[in-house]
Write a structure and sequence with these properties.
mainly alpha; elongated
Length: about 50
């Protein structure tokens, strides 16, 4: 579930960068939150997928 959300956010972020169209900083904030969540899970030793 977390991996799917991360992939969707990365795709949306890349589309925003390529087309110069973003929804404010919302997508960037969500992307940072997902990256932090993945790092926390890696540090705890949990599986990501």
């Amino acid at each position: 579930m977390l991996t799917t959300i991360a992939i969707v956010l990365i795709i949306l972020w890349l589309l925003g960068v390529v087309t110069s169209y973003t929804i404010g900083g919302f997508i960037h904030i969500l992307l940072v939150i997902v990256v932090i969540m993945v790092l926390v899970r890696l540090i705890r030793g949990e599986r990501i997928m």
